[in-house]
Amino acid sequence: MPFSHLGLSAPLLRAVAARKYLTPTPIQTAAIPAVLGGGDVWACAQTGSGKTAAFALPLLQKLATTRRERGRLVRALILAPTRELAAQIGESLRNYAQFLTEPLKTLVVYGGVSINPQMMALGGGADIIVATPGRLLDLIDHNAVSLSAVSVLVLDEADRLLELGFTAELTRILALLPARRQSLLFSATFPPSVEALAAGLLRNPLRLEIPAEPATTPDILQRAIEVDPLRRTQLLRHLVQENKWSRVLVFLATKYATEHVAEKLRKAGLAATAFHGELSQGARTQALADFKAAKIQVLLTTDLAARGIDIIELPAVVNFDLPRSAVDYLHRIGRTGRAGESGVALNFISAGTHAHFCLIEKRHGLDLPREQIEGFEPIETELPSPPTGGIKGRRKSKKDKLREAAAGRAERPADSPATKKFSWPRLR
Ligand code: AMP
């Protein structure tokens, strides 16, 4: 079905065409008419599914046809778990609204930056506020904003909002909203906590369980590379240089590790920087902007950047440290291969993390061949066999391994492909 059949106005269709979206994604096809119709929506949607436009386009259309009253009132509230996601939603709204005849006032508010400019900007109210919960409550406490006229509420990445411990903030915010309103809830997963939130929030919602196909099935090549932990930085440097990636997003387990590896890469002459939650908001915004503008080639991050961040033309993601959960794995690798581009996701596996990676693979029905990169073959110990089979016990000596490497005998069976294409699994 084309966009023109969804009931959107000409200025919004023009904005969609300007973004070169050819056809709506499944979530857009289902959600746009439903939101325009005024009902509540409960949607299971990942980042990459096109969910932002699924709520942003009909929301803009509804607001464009009615007028804002004077005062500190706000007409639509979008809550997002992180500052980066809030900023990104704000950017999308501005983009989709660019051809509307009557401009709509959209404000993005989040913590970590001075509250005063946000208070000033809120003078006279706003059509749409995109907010992280904590800063919104601060603004309410300062009497800078009133939620009494909110007619549409959007909770984006509701599971993440709860995971990050915003339950108390959400409860306070929801109590300030008028009972008569439209509520839209988007979440990648539906654990009991999100089900409970939805049950309390939504009235006869249209439940959308679109198979978790993103905007276009991502073309992500996943690879599992065996390497000793202490040689990962050198291997990363080698791969960045050899593959000539314009940009690579690298995930590490700790903030300290992101700083440490960034420093080493910089010393080796690469444009690398760390991106994590302890940086000031200014430094985070700058790092992301520099990365998007390709002034930084390697961005080393914690799971802060695993969700929601949309960096177009990101050719590679590296799991320097593996993610804790199989769901986090999806979010991380989903940073590449977006909006029809292809990407590669590399996993560094060591003897100590091999079993954990097998569990992630099992969860997603993957069976990636193990690769070794010449000059970086692991020598610490033999990798243990996966939990579901294989022969345990025999460990090759360092000498055995070197002999094998010299003889060119790879660990991988001769007939197995070097890489495996990703088919997006269903997250339920
Ligand atoms: P989202 O899931 O909202 O984070 O969107 C993921 C990416 O898909 C963004 O880069 C959007 O610009 C892009 N996108 C959204 N809708 C479409 C569409 N109908 N066709 C192609 N790309 C889209």
Short description:
This protein is α/β, with parallel strands linked by helices. Helices cover 36% and strands 16% of the residues. It folds into 2 domains: 207 residues, P-loop containing nucleotide triphosphate hydrolases (Rossmann fold); 153 residues, P-loop containing nucleotide triphosphate hydrolases (Rossmann fold).
Write the SSE topology.
Blueprint: H1 10-18, H2 26-36, E1 41-44, H3 51-64, E2 74-79, H4 83-96, E3 106-109, H5 116-121, E4 126-131, H6 133-141, E5 152-155, H7 158-163, H8 167-176, E6 182-187, H9 192-201, E7 206-208, E8 219-226, H10 232-243, E9 248-251, H11 255-267, E10 272-275, H12 281-292, E11 298-301, E12 316-319, H13 326-333, E13 342-349, H14 354-363, E14 370-371, H15 398-406, E15 420-421
Parallel strand pairs: 1-6, 1-7, 2-4, 2-5, 3-4, 5-6, 8-13, 8-14, 9-11, 9-12, 10-11, 12-13
Antiparallel strand pairs: 8-15
Helix pairs in contact: 2-3, 3-4, 6-8
Bound molecules: adenosine monophosphate.
Adenosine monophosphate is lined by residues 21, 24-25, 28, 47-53, 215, 310, 338-339.
